[in-house]
Specification:
Distance between the termini: 93 Å
Keywords: Guanine-nucleotide releasing factor
Number of strands: 4
Strand content: under 5%
GO molecular function: guanyl-nucleotide exchange factor activity
Pfam families: PRONE
Helix content: 55-70%
Organism: Ilex paraguariensis (yerba mate)
Order of helices and strands: HHHEEHEHEHHHHHHHHHHHHH
Strand order of the largest sheet: 1-2
Radius of gyration: 29 Å
Protein name: PRONE domain-containing protein
Structural class: mainly alpha
Length: about 500
């Protein structure tokens, strides 16, 4: 009897210790979550305090505008998170969590940028009334969800490289001789070089990489379209206008001016005659052309008929179209070039917080998409060099583009936003999903699935158009030409 009571007491004590351990563990977890919540709150308070003070924590009142401070905060956050993305691999969990948390903080300010819209309501006595209610501003309401979708697609693309085992990057602990052998010969010498098998990548891996590249290219074009439209709607600062030359000839120089104002203009031939061998020269040409466009637009809006030097409004409009076409081609062929003087000036003096968020968020996504595409092309180039060691130096995928002739028409993008925000991310397909077969299946099944994957790859190209950008922009001169049946130049980019 006594022994039975002692055994029962032991069981009772063990249960007490068990429940006590559970309670203490839950208490520790609760305290940890509370501390993390407090830390997040303190960090968020610090960030928004800097934004409210315009990045001037001294209290001297020398801070920048709220719009520029928010734009800088988003840019700096992206640089600290994505700046270490040197190769094709998933983002570390801590960096991914930090990005999602802090970008949500910064974007949350757009929830309070609203406009009045009419809404129908029924009163208690059944009378229909139309009242004005607040809703997030239209451009933010449409474009913020689209940017979030593009953001998720890019991160999912990086996550897809988790299980691949056909290419790798040189370890930091490698021998100096091996590092010297695989050192990059291009202008990005600090980036690690991908290594592929001696016989090159498999057909499945090669097709899957091309599929990923096409998917990221869709994201790049969509981000470019949103960024371009927002920049086009930003007010042009007075100091930029005051710095413009007197006429387009002075801005472009005699040689470029004559090439643009010829009777029969071919943009592809024009660019073939320009020196585009360096980033600086491309940016210089872009600045000159943008300045000439602004000069022609101001002269067209300020005068009727002909100016003192005999150029009619119709010709100025034609020259403007040609210049915008050149800008469009430059951006398509060289998506990684820095911002122009006009773009920097607009961002610096912009006072619209909503536009600042859209511009900076789309710009960093554009930059990340271009970076991911470059990393994918590094692997494809390494594969090409392995298979064709003698002719590989001629391969340059970033500059591959079909010849362009005549004036370009920016495609209509009304349906693309719906596709982009409603479909599953096309780059969420992993390598095993792309293969669609296991090692136990036969060769015939593998070939059939590769054909199916090829058709899927072709279907993803339907999203190459940028999404619809909802704006309050007034009808421009170029849009009026389009309504008359002419071709529209790509005003959405510049």
């Amino acid at each position: 009897m006594v022994q039975a009571l002692e055994e029962e007491q032991k069981i009772y004590r063990s249960r007490l210790f068990h429940f006590k351990g559970i309670y203490e563990n839950e208490a520790r977890q609760s305290q940890t979550s509370i501390r993390e919540g407090d830390n997040d709150m303190d960090l968020m308070k610090e960030k928004f305090a800097k934004l409210l003070l315009g990045e001037d924590m001294s209290g001297g009142g020398k801070g920048v505008s709220s719009a520029l401070a928010l734009s800088n905060a988003i840019t700096n956050l992206a640089a600290s998170v994505f700046g270490e993305q040197r190769q094709l691999e998933p983002m570390p969990a801590d960096r991914k969590a930090r990005w999602r948390k802090e970008i949500n903080w910064l974007i949350s300010v757009t929830d309070h940028i609203v406009e009045f819209v009419p809404s129908k309501q029924i009163s208690k006595d059944g009378i229909n009334m139309e009242v004005m209610v607040t809703r997030q501003r239209t451009d933010l309401h449409m474009n913020i969800p689209a940017l979030r979708k593009l953001d998720a697609m890019l991160i999912e693309c990086l996550d897809n490289f988790k299980e691949q085992d056909e290419f790798c990057y040189m370890s930091r602990d490698a021998d100096e001789s091996q590092k010297e052998k695989n050192k990059r010969k291009d202008d990005k010498w600090w980036l690690p070089s991908p290594e592929v098998p001696s016989n090159g990548l498999s057909d499945v891996m090669r097709k899957w990489l091309q599929f990923q590249k096409d998917s990221v290219n869709q994201v790049l074009k969509a981000a470019m379209a949103i960024n371009a439209q927002v920049l086009s709607e930003m007010r042009i600062p007075e100091n930029y206008i005051e710095s413009l030359p007197k006429n387009g000839r002075e801005s472009l120089g005699d040689s470029i001016y004559k090439s643009i104002t010829v009777e029969y203009f071919d943009p592809d031939h024009f660019l073939s005659t320009m020196d585009l061998s360096s980033e600086h020269k491309i940016l210089d040409l872009k600045n000159k052309i943008e300045a000439s466009i602004m000069i022609w637009r101001r002269k067209m809006s300020a005068k009727d008929g002909k100016s003192a030097w005999g150029v009619s409004i119709e010709k100025r409009g034609l020259f403007e179209e040609r210049a915008e076409t050149i800008l469009y081609i430059l951006k398509q062929q060289f998506p990684g070039i820095p911002q122009s003087t006009l773009d920097i000036s607009k961002i610096q003096y912009n006072q619209d917080v909503g536009q600042a968020v859209l511009e900076s968020y789309s710009r960093i996504l554009e930059s990340l998409a271009f970076t991911v595409m470059s990393r994918i092309e590094d692997v494809l180039l390494a594969d090409f060099l392995t298979i064709n060691p003698s002719s590989g130096e001629q391969w340059s995928p970033l500059k591959e583009s079909p010849p362009v002739t005549g004036l370009l028409k920016l495609p209509s993008t009304k349906e693309e936003l719906e596709k982009l925000t409603s479909i599953e991310a096309p780059n969420s397909m992993t390598l095993l999903d792309f293969m669609g077969w296991t090692l136990d299946q036969g060769e015939n099944d593998a070939k059939q699935d590769l054909k199916d994957d090829k058709s899927k790859d072709a279907n993803t190209k339907n999203l190459v158009k940028p999404p619809n950008i909802v704006t309050n922009k007034r009808v421009s001169y170029i849009e009026r030409l389009e309504n008359l049946g002419g071709l529209r130049s790509p005003t959405a980019r510049h």
